[in-house]
Q: What sequence folds into this?
């Protein structure tokens, strides 16, 4: 049985944490999301979220998107082991598009570690 709790240690909380991921600029994207990543010195993965008001004006919509991303990360964080990831929402999605958005996010979750490993070996 896996560990599925979403702990505080699994979140990027400080501005410096976000800045270090933004500065490294290893990214993968699709129509829904842009993922920025970097290696961390910790055993687990950490996630930060960016959902701007330009993406969705209403807080209810932004909060739904953040909950969906956090839940997907919580269930699949093992494949991002050892990475700090910032997820930027590029296109608004609601309940009707939620399944497609989750599938797109999972695809990016599988691509990002390969790209981070390739850049670390340079």
A:
């Amino acid at each position: 049985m896996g560990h599925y709790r979403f702990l505080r240690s699994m979140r990027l909380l400080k501005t410096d944490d976000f800045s270090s991921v933004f500065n490294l600029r290893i990214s993968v994207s699709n129509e829904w999301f842009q993922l920025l990543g970097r290696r961390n010195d910790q055993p687990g993965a950490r996630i930060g979220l960016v959902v701007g008001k330009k993406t969705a004006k209403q807080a209810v919509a932004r909060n739904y998107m953040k909950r969906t991303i956090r839940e997907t990360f919580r269930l699949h964080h093992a494949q991002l082991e050892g990475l700090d990831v910032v997820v930027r929402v590029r296109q608004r999605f609601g309940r009707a598009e939620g399944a497609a958005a989750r599938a797109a996010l999972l695809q990016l979750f599988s691509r990002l570690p390969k790209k981070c490993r390739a850049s670390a070996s340079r």
Summary: The chain has a mean pLDDT of 90. The CA atoms of residues 6 and 74 lie 6 Å apart. The chain has one domain: 10-114.
